[in-house]
Fold this protein.
Amino acid sequence: MKNLNLSLVALAVIGLSACSDGDDGANGTNGTDGTNGADGSNGSNGSTSLIVQTALTIGDANCPNSGVQIDSGIDADSDGALQTAEITATEYVCAPGNTEVSTSEILTSVNNDWFVAGQQEITTARQNWLNATMPNLAASNSAKKSAQSVAAVNASALNELRGSAKNVILFVGDGMGISTVTAARILEGQMQGKNGEEHNLSFDTFPFAGLAKTYNVDAQTPDSAGTMTAMMSGVKTDAGILGVDENVERGDCSTVAGTELITALELAEIAGKSTGVISTARITHATPAATYAKSADRNWEDISDMPEEAVTAGCKDIADQLVNFEVNLEARINGIDVDGIDVVMGGGRRHFLPKDAAYNSADAVSSVEGDRTDGRDLTAEWQATYTDGVYVMDQAGFDAIDAANTTRVMGLFNESHMQYEADRANDVAGEPSVAEMTAKAIDILDNNDEGFFLTVESGRIDHGHHAGSAYNALTDTLAFSDAIAKAVEMTDMSDTLIIVTADHGHVFTIAGYPKRGNPILGTVVGIGSEEPSTASDGMPYTTLGYTNGRGFKNLGTETDADAGYGEDITAGRFDLTDVDTASSGFHQESLVPTSSETHAGEDVGIYAYGPGAMLVNGTNEQSVIYHIMDFAADLTNKANAAQTN
Amino acid sequence: MKLSLPLSFMLSSLLITLSSAAEAQCELSPSNLQASYQLTSSDNSPNLSSKNSSHTSQLNLWRQGNTVAHQYPQTDITESWFLLNNKQIKPTRFFDHYQRGIEYQPGEVVHGKSEHDWSYRYQFISDKLISQLTLSAETGKGCERQQVLTQTSTNSKIELVWLPELQLISRFSWTKNQGKHQTHEQWQLTELSHDANKITAFFKQLNHYNMTDYADIGDDHSDEFLTKMVTLGFVEHGASGFYDTEGKAISDGHSH
């Protein structure tokens, strides 16, 4: 302790004058003042006052950020030190608190790239939110706004958000569950020479995301018909049925009347927007069909697939409903005038052609390509109805489409499903990629000033998984990501809402403890090791695998996952020591033997970009996607307005 | 036409109405026919409980244009292949008892084998294998012309009686010896028909089956047939082809 004698105060002793005694009498007059006596002797010295300053370190109870404690008192015992008992006052002078931490003080955090990237993500997320919810505020110094004014602006902006999306594009990766997105991201990164895990697919960078619960009304693990109906109509329904509610009994035509749901695509049509449906599966397959068809059974793709009683009862097959979409919609809803779906592209030509070899296309892969048993050629009927329309069936026809001057296209590029992306080069007459179809569709649809509504399905991700081929599922996911990137590139986020999601997941896992950058299609190699990890059976195992399905296949360079269906079911473990698990023909092991790998009941991601994207957050019923699209593009109100005009 | 007579006699009957000019060349189309074979295999392996195991089955070959079908009556399964203009081959498998079928993409691998050799499915025996055999005799004219082709090695012997005009096996035998163990397989043509109505009716019946694209098998687990299809008696590897002395398919170098 440091003692300081700041001052010494001397006390003066003042002498008093004396008076003589006498009888009591009248008081005499006061005598004159006597002379001052001699000065008394000096008094003894007074006590010393002491002040003691004590430096306080960071964390002190009174000065958390450090400072000085000032004790003062009389040095009663004159020992020159201020004893505790002598302290009569204590004051503190505290240092101000630190509002910033220097990089030198927390080197292990703020100088870390992950930490910096995380900070930037917060900044980006905040800006995304401001841009989405209160664009006017975001442009000003938002920090100066009071909470009250922010809330007011927020509410106002939210109200203005309705209808702000002129265009809507819904991308559905069939079977593209969370693990598929993760594995595809890693694969694409590794194909670019990265470790992979840090890479982003095109929609990974979308500003808003949430989760969707995928169950059907009657099924814990869903199918595409029920899930896409939920997304397109806002109503969850049963598995296996399209565009109708849960009151329909699957396969029973007589139960359909009165259960028909209206879809977002139909609302967009009524509202005067251009509309389009794209799929790499058959265009009559469940996911694309849920945008335009009402059917008691997803399998009624053409009339030959329907039971006689359903045909007699007046139910129409799905291909018929696509070609006659315009007249059917106008018949169902009074007072509307629509012009039909403008762009239709996918596979499934067989359901549009008669079962007669005379109608075979140039790239037919069957002796009789068509399946229709009613003798109708729906492609001809479509062309007769839409004389301005362009019908194409191969790459050359697709390439020849002049998007700027074309208003209507029907492209049926395969007898059945279109090819897996990895197998596309093997197509007989050639067919476009999903990215090429997306770009062409946008080029055509955006000629309408009222905007457009487009759905794009990557249908064969699902098929790759069903066959137990991660290679095909993931390479189709990458092609799908490319299509989404193309849509982002070709549209303006200020007026186009893009939602990317899946209808359901698969029992597809990313397992074990592979080290960073380990080939995602390879066997597990642990951290710090160069040799494959082995299971308790002594054999290596792949990172990717399936809970059920047909199991291990080693088909070498085969790029068609469905080749696995020609092989026996081989669930369980196999020695993969000398197997190239990254080859296109490798099918992952499965645990439970089933005729094909199955869907999963897990949630799927919803990724959103553009006006209304901020409505995507949290965990939702899958049907929320319809409501977000409806809100962002104000489809119902615009359709109602068109109906009454 | 049901035949139990020697093939030469059968062909003579078929051609008896042909003109003399036609005798020099065959006017019957190899691309529209139905042929029935009796398949006999025997095995005297000392490991078998029955020292002389023998098995007989029937196999029907159907051709119509660029489509060929192999019908297995014992298992109620028919396999069919369609040759595309670009030479790709599209397989289809029919389950006759269920009147259901599974369609595959052209060129895809079924049972580990990618279809590239049309002759193998069209004739049961590939052109490549035929080219490796030695012509030992040739008789007849026109549709009757037949060749005897053989290949003999230390442990095996192959003999093929071949009808080149019809691109058809008349008889095929293969004997393999391994010590005291001998296996023998023989295919014998028993019936040949060019009845267009019969052939058309056969393929028309197949075309009316309820077909499923192989890729859709996983879509619908409510369909019991699809769920169980893999246990319904898929044709085993190489059932419609021949094997070399190592037991490998000897169609054209493909191995299963």
